[in-house]
Amino acid sequence: xxxxxxxxxxxxxxxxxxxxxxxxxxxxxxxxxxxxxxxxxxxxxxxxxxxxxxxxxxxxxxxxxxxxxxxxxxxxxxxxxxxxxxxxxxxxxxxxxxxxxxxxxxxxxxxxxxxxxxxxxxxxxxxxxxxxxxxxxxxxxxxxxxxxxxxx
Length: 152
Ligand SMILES: [Zn+2]
Hints:
Layout (H helix, E strand, L loop, with lengths): L20 H7 L1 H11 L3 H5 L3 H14 L17 E5 L9 E2 L3 H10 L2 E5 L3 H5 L4 H14 L9
Antiparallel strand pairs: 1-2, 1-3
C-alpha cells in the first residue's frame, strides 16, 4: 500500500499569518471553507492543485475520519451521520439521523428539506450566510466532541 502524502500549508500573510490550515480550521472553519471554494475560481489552480487546496483536501479527509460521538435520536443504536437542511427556516441541531433508511425517512417526514452528511459540512458552509454556516459548524462540533484531538 502506498504511503499517504500529508500536505500542509502555512499562511504567509493576513490575520492568520504563521498559522497552518489546521490551526485556522480550529479557530474559524468557515474562513477555510471559503478560501478553499474561492481557490477554484482561479483557472490555473484547477489544472495544478495548489498547496492550499491540497492541505484543505487533507483536512477534509481527516474530518471524515473523526469519530462521531452522538447517537441517532431515532434508532439510538447508530451514530448520527446526517443533518437536515430545511426548505424553510434555519438549521437545527436536533434534526439529525444515522444512515439507516428508516431513520432517514423518519427525519425527512418530520420536516421538509434535504439530508446532508455532517462530515461534508465544510463543502456547504462556504456558500451560506454566516449565521446559518455557524449553526452547521455547531452541529459538527456537537456531534464530534473530540474533533480537536484529530489536529493536536
Ligand atoms: Zn438511526
